[in-house]
Each structure stands twice: as structure tokens, then as C-alpha cells.
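[RESIDUES AND BACKBONE]
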Amino acid sequence: MPSSSRLTANTVSSSPFVDLDREAWRRLSASTPLPLTAADVDRLAGLGDPIDLAEVDAIYRPISRLLDLYIAATRGLHQASSTFLREELTTTPFVIGVAGSVAVGKSTTARVLRELLARWPATPDVQLITTDGFLYPNAELERRGLMQRKGFPESYDRRALLRFVSQVKAGREEVRAPVYDHLTYDIVPDREIVVTRPDVLIVEGLNVLQPARASAGEASNLAVSDFFDFSIYVDARTRDVRTWYVDRFLRLRETAFAQPESYFHRYASLSDAEAADRAEHIWDTINAPNLEANILPTRSRATLVLTKGPDHSVERVRLRKL
């Protein structure tokens, strides 16, 4: 049987993952309906992260079916546990973490999954939160000398993020999160996102799979990922992500950067060569070190790893064995 229609040898090796190529993955849910249209997909695509209906059909439709199965199984286990403990049966959100590098397409992945899962009968209410809202405000980052390390683990209010996710998982009626504005590159004062006991919450961010880090004064060594029921890491070769980042930077120069209120408005007048040089410098001095030191090492902690090729399409899928 050709390799394109079967699992790889990793399914019988000591690897904790089942490794499938694109075609093998696509064929896993041939009978699962695809409720999105091409117009839906165009609306969900991110800048610099091309995606089409064929990609959603081949990759994200099977993921939505797999998640539907996981959600049903988790609810069944919760019901069995409540019965055993003679507790009143309550429901809590199924929490999914989506991690990966800057410019790898994790935001598009999160948005597409939100749309697909919301169309399954068991999960009509799917909400999405990004960890950008838990970055320290720029003034605080400046005070701490962290502006050039924005996006690194230490630039986030870890306690606030942990408190938010734990309250969601505990079934609180309302849990509030800060709002981040990518145009001004800062937290928006006096604005919040309210999460109201969804069926599913997707938490998307660079460092959501970071393990717990013991530190002085911390009462708990919990990690955000401790509250995840399922996690996805969007992966690609570093050289490809670098290219995507530079391409996106050039496109932003003509869109968001062109707005006077943009934090990066100073880049709007750069020539193509100047903009490419600036983007490469930012990647090499900030994004690449963060990826190599903090983000990429968390890949093995994910339940599902999506590996993209140079054209942004997913070439391989690795699913952690139960």
C-alpha cells in the first residue's frame, strides 16, 4: 500500500504520536459534512496566511470531527465522575489551546476551528480568546525593560492569564479578559472581552503550551496548558515562517501601517528593500530567538501538530496517542 494512504511507521514505534500524511488525514472523515463555504473561508483567512476551501476540507474538517469526539468523551467522563462523587452534574467549557510562531497561521487555525465547531450540534457556542490581551501594557513593559522582548513569556501577566483560564474551566458565569489592539500595539484601557460559559473556548497564543515555571512568591506552579482539554501546535520550517513574516510585514506597510494611529506608522514610507531589511532584523533579533528558546520546545506538549509546507498548506499531521 502506498505511503500516501496509510499511517507511517511511527504508529508502531515508540513515538507518542501517530504520524499521518495529508492524504491519510483527509480520508479519516470522508462522511463528515463541510458546513463552510468559500466565502466563509475567505472571511476567516489571515493576512499573509492563504487558505482555501480545499485546505479546510482536507485538514480542518477531520480536526472538527476529532474534536467533536473528544468533547463527547470528556463530557461522558465528567458525568461519570460526578455520579461517582454524588455531585450535582454541571457542565464546564471544553478548552482548546492553539500555539505556534508569529506568522505561522495559528490565528487562522483558531478562527476556522471556531466556525466549524460552532456548527456541530453539541457545541453551538464557541468563543475565542487570544493571549495578546494578557501582555503587560507598553508602559509596564518599558518600566521592566521588556519592550524588545514583547511576546516572550516574561512579557505576559501570567497570573492574570492563569486566573482567567481557571475561572473559565471552573464554570464561572462571566469571566473577563483585557483587549489588545494590534493597530496601537497596546492594551486598550477600560475595554474587556466577556466570556460567558461557552461550550468550547479556544485560547490562541505564542506561549500557551509553556510548562509551569517555579518562581519566588508563586503560590502555585500551574501552567495555562493544565486547563486545556486539547491542544494544537501549528508548525513549519523556520526559514518558511521567516519568509511569511517578511511578506506579511510588506503587506502591512500598505494597510495597517499606513494608518496614522498605527504604532508602526513610521514604517509605511519605507521602500520595499528598506521594509524587507527592517522585517528581517525584527525577525532575527526578536521573533526567531523567542521561537527557538520558548515556542518550538513546547511543540511536543501538543495533542495535535499541524506541519505546514512552504505554500502554507498542511503536509503532515501528528496526533498524540491516548
Q: What stands out?
A: The first strand starts at residue 17 and ends at 21. The radius of gyration is 20 Å. Residues 1 and 7 are 10 Å apart (CA to CA). The chain has eight helices and nine strands.
